[in-house]
Amino acid sequence: QVQLVESGGGLVQTGGSLRLSCAASGRTDRIVMGWFRQAPEKEREFVAAITWSGGSRSYLESVKGRFTISRDSANTVSLQMDSLKPEDTGVYYCAASNYLDRSPTTYAYWGQGTQVTVSS
Hints:
globular; mainly beta; 7-stranded mixed sheet
């Protein structure tokens, strides 16, 4: 079992920045940690993911160059979000998997989510 707790999020204007953090506990050996987001009436979509070692990362095309996923410690992953746009608005979820993948079905463990709102 893996437990995930997100922090960060909030309201920011277009062009602003936010930093999300996810703390993992439990059986965290070699897990891949990712971020997904879900806007109202839309499907949950992949945002970014990073392997246990931090050696491999994957990003949604529309956030490349603006978002950075990193491992702050053995059990903490952050998502630095810069140059935010209104279309980045949604509930952001931290998730854990054994594989680096973009499909939410690959991720067995999920946090409770944190709201990010970007005003225009």
